[in-house]
Every structure is written in structure tokens, then in C-alpha cells.
Amino acid sequence: MDRRGGTWKLLGSVVYAHSKELITAWYIGFLILIFSSFLVYLAEKEANSQFSTYADSLWWGT
């Protein structure tokens, strides 16, 4: 860490300046997780006992 915190100020200003893009990226990632877990649940619930519930598929997705 530098003494004056310039690096942290720069990082904070970049996060603040691009907050909408970061929120959009997190939101899209969350939707992909939900959708892919649902598809895995539908595909594997009969064949694989590991995915017996949708929550198991969500855990697999994470």
C-alpha cells in the first residue's frame, strides 16, 4: 500500500465511474447462473440423483 492511499482512491474512482457497467455485468452473470442451473436441473433430474432439486442445481452452478 502506498502511504497516501492514491491507489485506493484511483480504484474507488474507477469503480464509481463504471458502476452501471459493473452492476449490469453482475446482473447478467446472475441471470446466466439461474438459467443454466434450471437447464441442468431439467436435463439431469431423471438421469442423475445428484440433481434431485433445483437448489442442488443452483449449488452446482456456483
Automatic annotation (TrEMBL):
SUPFAM superfamilies: Voltage-gated potassium channels. Gene3D superfamilies: 1.10.287.70. One of its GO terms (cellular component) is voltage-gated potassium channel complex. The keyword Lyase does not apply. The chain crosses the membrane at residues 23-43. Keywords: Membrane, Transmembrane, Transmembrane helix. InterPro entries: K_chnl_volt-dep_KCNQ (IPR003937). Coiled coil: none annotated. GO terms for molecular function: voltage-gated potassium channel activity. PANTHER family: POTASSIUM VOLTAGE-GATED CHANNEL SUBFAMILY KQT MEMBER 4, POTASSIUM VOLTAGE-GATED CHANNEL SUBFAMILY KQT MEMBER 4-LIKE ISOFORM X1. This is Potassium voltage-gated channel subfamily KQT member 5. The lineage of its organism: Eukaryota, Metazoa, Chordata, Craniata, Vertebrata.
